[in-house]
Amino acid sequence: MIDETRLQALVRMDVAQRLRSNDLSLTVGNFVLALLVAASLHKAAPPAWVACWLGLQFVNLAFHLWLGLRWLRSPLTITNAPIWLRRVTRTSAINGVLWLLAVQIFWPGASEAQRMLLLAWMIGISAAALHSLHAHLPAYFAMVGPALLGLLLALLVHETLEGWAIMAVLLFGATLYFHFAVSLQRLLWASLRQAHQLEALSESLKLEKDQAVKLSQSRSRFLAAASHDLRQPVHALSLFVGALKQNPSPTQSAQILQHVSSAVDAMGAMFNALLDISKLDAEQLQPQWQTVDLRVLLSRMAADHNLQAQAKGLRFVCALPPEPAALMVHSDPALLERVLRNLLSNALRYTRQGGVLLRARRRHGRIELLVADSGAGIARARRAEVFDEFVQLHSSGQGLGLGLAIVQRLSGLLRLGLRLRSRPGRGSLFTLILEPLDEGPTAAPAPAAQTQLRGELVIVLDESAEIRLAMSTLLSAWGLGVVSAASVAELMPQLMSVSAAPRLLLCDYHLGGGESGSDAIARLRELFNSDIPALLLSGDTGPERGREALDQGLTLLHKPLSQAQLRTAVGQALQPSDSISTTAPD
User: What sign has the CA pseudo-torsion 505, 549, 520, 561?
Assistant: First the structure.
């Protein structure tokens, strides 16, 4: 809704616009009436006085015409509307004073009939002023007040019985006119306020409608992109599984399994992108600020992406400043790495020849991270578009078009400067700007030793028999003992043969019999009288699921999970000294 101050200003501007046209027409009418009065009553006053009064009326008309031309040339705005209202009030006062002089000139020497005629004309002038100036009461009173005062003075000077009666009628009529003026002014201002409120409401509804249409189009793009891109790896998986059913040779089986692994990784990357954008929309991702050594981070990422570049026949160059130069920043290492990985993946995906450059440099007291490629490039008119969801300017047959949308949102979350330079056919250059730490380079913390997963008992609860089988197979391959079931009720008979308490609970949120994973974890902890570490798995990325896990002190993992992510989460949960996180590991 529009605020009250602006609403008052808009109404005042409308009133000024009305008076700009009404005041000029009223002045012209006053001059015509002045000619009629002079023609009818010229014998009741000295000719010199009548000529002088008509001269003043003519000067007043010329002044109003000149002012009217200025008004037409000068645009009316909220700022200058009060100035024009004050000008109209002053010009109305001039008209009122001229009619005060008319009464004083013509009344003393006029006959009774002429006085009644003059009184009728004065009443007509008041009616015309009521119609033209009621929108701004100061202007109305400035014109009618002097004219009424002139009549009262004339009646007081020439005291007769008829004069007192006329004065009473005049005062009663003036009271009615003033009442009508106030009522009309209130009605007009109320209607103008309502019109502007309706206009603001209409504009607000239009914006909401546009947002709803944009959201609907975004969802449509999501369904179209997801249904196409997610079908590709699923279709490939079905073909590879069919090929495995044909009992191929061990060499062929190994190749098929490698393709299966690649298809699963592609699906996982797509789902992770969707989860990332969902978390960002729900404001679930919060940076975990700490000191980050960019030299270590970029070296590791260069090693990972160099193999991808070689597989495509591209050159990959990682350029870091000399060793003494400090590359320490205050950021979230996981989110910063995700930004860089999205930029590098995009660069490798859309570059067919040439290479990709990852570079860090200090410039103007800041650290700049540059990701450059020799790919297709982006036209200037479409640079902003590449940061929208589900947009792929150059089709690659991979991904959902969310990489750069995630980069832009994470850059804002991490307070990174993000710049894009690109030329079609010459490639693109993305630059991230970070503030360095002043204390200089420090030794990077030694990586934590990987937890040995041997002999620990893990309880797996999941409604799906296929997932229980896959989870049990994987955990057993890591050297863990596994007991699995669809619910706590189904688990109870198996616990009769368990001699030691479990070290970890791994539960899906939706279990058999309508039971939730968080409730199952609470029951098992109560049963073993121990605060057993627990991992809660869910495909629901809504903020309420994260708050629920946080309230119960559980680690929430979002599906789908890769083998590396699951092993990291299990290893951290089995370390007693580690604190429990409420977000999925990267």
Answer: negative
Cα–Cα distances (Å) from 331 to 169, 299, 337, 405, in that order, read 85, 17, 10, 20
> What is the reported pLDDT for 229?
53
Neighbours of 520 (CB within 10 A): 24
Measured CA to CA, the distance from residue 362 to residue 320 in angstroms comes to 10
CB 99 within 8 A of CB 125: yes
Task: Convert the pLDDT of each residue in 472-508 to its tens digit.
Answer: 888 888 888 899 998 888 988 888 888 788 999 999 9
Give the pair of three-digit tokens for residue 165.
């009666």
11-20, 199-208, 257-266 — which is least confidently predicted?
257-266
- Of 518, 523, 503, residue with least CA distance to 575: 503
Q: Is 377 left (phi over 0), alpha (psi -120 to 50) or beta?
A: left
CA distance 440 to 230: 46
- As a whole number, the mean pLDDT across the chain is 79
Q: Are the CB atoms for 208 and 1 separated by under 8 Å?
A: no
Q: What share of the chain in percent tops pLDDT 70? A: 80
- Edge to edge, the sheet with strand 315-319 lists 315-319, 355-363, 366-373, 427-434, 417-423
Q: Token digits for 448?
A: 């934590």
Distance from C-alpha of 457 to C-alpha of 475, rounded to nearest angstrom: 10
**Residue 39 near residue 108 (C-beta atoms within 8 A):** no
Q: How far is CA 429 from CA 31, 150, 358, 423, 513, in A?
A: 74, 82, 10, 9, 54
Angle between helices 137-157 and 112-133 (to 10 degrees): 170
CA proximity to 318, closest of 294, 352, 283: 294
Regarding pTM above 0.70, the answer is: no
451 to 105, 471, 490, 584: CA distances (angstroms): 111, 19, 30, 18
Rounded Cα gap, residues 96 and 91, in angstroms: 9
The residues, ordered by sequence, that sit 6+ positions from 346 with a Cβ below 8 Å of its Cβ are 403, 404
Q: Which tokens hold the place of 80?
A: 């200058």
What distance in Å separates the CA atoms of residue 491 and residue 493, rounded to the nearest whole number?
Answer: 6
Interacting residues of 116 by C-beta distance below 8 A, sequence separation 6+: none
Query: How many Cβ atoms from other residues are within 10 Å of residue 332's Cβ?
Result: 19
Q: Residue 564: CB partners within 8 Å, gap ≥ 6?
A: none
Give the DSSP letter of residue 383: T
Instruction: Tell me the residue type at 125.
Output: I
